[in-house]
Amino acid sequence: MNIAPGKTEASSVPFDKARVDRLMEEAGIDVLFATSKHNTQYLLGGYKFIFFAAMDAIGHSRYLPIVLYEKGGPEHAAYIGNKMEGGEHQNHPFWTPTLHAACWGTLDAANLAVEHLRKIGKDAARIGIEPGFLPSDAYALIRKALPDAKLVDATDMLERMRAIKTEAELEQLRIASELITDSMLATIAWAREGTSKTDIIERLRREETNRGAHFEYCLLTLGSSHNRAASSQAWKKGEVMSIDSGGNYHGYIGDLCRMGVLGEPDAELQDLLAEVEAVQQAAFSKVKAGTLGGDMIAHAESVLKASKVAAYTDFFAHGMGLITHEAPFLMTNHPVAYEGTYAAKPLEKNMVLSVETTMLHPTRGFIKLEDTVAVTDAGYVMFGDRGRGWNRGGIS
Prior knowledge:
alpha+beta
């Protein structure tokens, strides 16, 4: 399917065109050549092809969606997708004036992208690519076919593009967080003495799926163990459970951690979770538009350093949205390998943060809270703000 370019109204572009154009100008990019599923989804206004939601491989190659967007020229935008996506367009038309729903692999997709760039006179332009999401065979084809073009790494520009969420994105993230929280609390209440980690994880998967979320993972501990992998280990009376799950709602991530206990929490457990909560609250107290990201980190770390559990407890915060670690990047290599480039920048309204404090107690086990907050002018809004204390197991 090849739909000829036509006039595109500014209102039909599903993102802040002026902001994206400005970010492209600052990055020295004339045309975006987006190839990751998260960035193509963003640029298409939330669309992601369901057939390749779980796996990209097909035949001898893989699915390679491409969105081409010219700075200041939405009328020249194109989407290059799989042949089956013609049916998607018939039901819910893509906003891009040009659509090539014709590909089965990387090279045919790259060839169509090159043809389109030539057609719109951008074969010698500064083209913003995603090196981590552009297969080597497609890159080699583009480099050979467009010898006069300058290929620019657009990763940072695209991360900045997604850092400030729209109201619609915030709602997706809120729903995702609510669904994951509800699922974790239901799973804790369901599990009882003798229930294995493998069965608990499977129950959580069903709870999330039945609520309309897409289950991605569950990291689970029982008792004094710090091992979060699935196993036959069974829950015992008096033991704690940490349940940390990531799932998504229409691509937007819900990523939280809640605590359970089989029985009544004793005084020590109450005290330990209170120490974790104190660090979380210290971080929240500095979340506000205009506050330096690094100041929030430093304040939480100072409260943790003064805590009696500091020797075996860690604090971490990161941005999240369509992926679990995205801008704002607040900490360097802690633990994910990236630079904390946003620590010296002010937090902005509608950024979304995951804030987590993790205790690896030597005898009581893995005790953690992870929360999702959206930055506002006055402070923050928390998503999934329930079950942050000790939740009793075996009560449903």
